[in-house]
Write a structure and sequence with these properties.
The protein is α+β, with helices and mostly antiparallel strands and 310 residues long. It folds into three domains: 83 residues, Rossmann fold (3-Layer(aba) Sandwich), CATH 3.40.50.20; 111 residues, D-amino Acid Aminotransferase, Chain A, domain 1; 58 residues, ATP-grasp fold, A domain (Dna Ligase, domain 1). Helices cover 32% and strands 24% of the residues. The chain is built from ten helices and twelve strands. Helix 1 crosses helix 10.
């Protein structure tokens, strides 16, 4: 049995989805973080779903966000080839990636969520829950295709846009409150991060201002919350992670209702951003885990889960 220091790790990034450029940034960061601790490490940039692994690959470190990397497809193909990979497996990836399916599981397991309805992507239909509401495609990340609607005037345009990403849509109760996220590493909930966009909500521009030279966000880690509230948020995040059966690590997005203090789980991200300034690494750093240590731990824990190192 090889030691991790003797292994060849291939960092997979890019892919066919809308988060391709973000994935490449994550890939380059992970590549540099792993270099000192592995016998060999290289970046494999995917443009579509076809790929050829370098000879002697011992582990794929998957940082393909969204389509193909986060939806279970890549995991299934790697298992077919007998190649170990980092993070969530096929079933948990599929479940977490689909907002409709994951919301059903949350409800089954008693995870706190906002009221929602699922409708066909038909702009001639009325909002099933009135306004304000949030319109979401079920299988996109980084808030792609998400619209917050205060009134009916923007309904048609929102449904048409979100409908570009799938035949069904989720229409969700709008909860006005603090946007929070909690990294999960192993079976530990990391410190809560408060996400505060300078304008609007935490969409792709506010998440990644460098992509389009738009948006800006402040991050507070740990979040300035009463200890009892912070602990309740962390426990709800861990409950959501466990409800979906996610392996190794994730990042759970939540809201804290300004009016009532209610905690609402939005989604579980199984391939969160992995640049040195991304949210999971920020939370890990707050408890003394530096970025290179985080990447090595994810890799080693993934190998250990599959019985490939002790």
């Amino acid at each position: 049995m090889k030691r991790f220091t003797e292994m060849k790790v291939v960092v997979m990034a890019g892919g066919p989805g809308s988060e391709r450029l973000v994935s490449l940034a994550s890939g380059r960061a992970v590549l540099e973080a792993l270099r000192p601790g592995c016998a060999a490490v290289e970046l494999l940039e995917l443009h579509g779903r076809e790929f050829e692994l370098p000879s002697g690959t011992d582990l794929v470190f998957n940082v393909i966000h969204g389509t193909f990397g986060e939806d279970g497809e890549l995991q299934l193909e790697l298992e077919r080839r007998g190649v170990p990979y980092t993070g969530a497996g096929v079933a948990s990836s599929r479940l977490a990636f689909n907002k409709i399916a994951s919301k059903e599981r949350f409800l089954e397991r008693g995870v706190l969520v906002a009221h929602h309805e699922v409708i066909p992507a038909d702009p001639d239909l009325a909002s099933p829950i009135g306004f304000p509401c949030v319109v979401k495609p079920p299988c996109e990340g980084s808030s792609v295709g998400v619209h917050i609607l205060e009134e009916a005037a923007g309904w048609r345009a929102a449904v048409e846009d979100a409908g570009c990403y799938g035949a069904s849509l989720m229409v969700e109760e709008y909860v006005k409150g603090k946007e929070l996220t909690v990294g999960i590493l192993g079976d530990e909930a990391l410190p809560v991060i408060h996400i505060q966009p300078q304008d609007g909500f935490y969409d792709i521009n506010n998440k990644y201002p460098w992509l389009n030279q738009k948006g800006s966000t402040q991050y507070f880690c740990p979040a300035d919350l009463p200890e009892s509230v912070s602990e309740a948020v962390r426990q709800e995040a861990l409950k959501a992670h466990r409800a979906l059966g996610v392996e190794i690590y994730s990042r759970v997005d939540l809201l804290l209702d300004d009016a009532t203090g209610r905690i609402v789980v939005l989604e579980v991200n199984t391939i969160p951003g992995m640049t040195s300034s991304s949210l999971l690494p920020k939370a890990a750093r707050a408890v003394g885990i530096e970025f290179d240590q985080l990447c090595a731990r994810i890799a080693q824990d993934s190998l250990s889960l599959r019985g490939l190192i002790s």
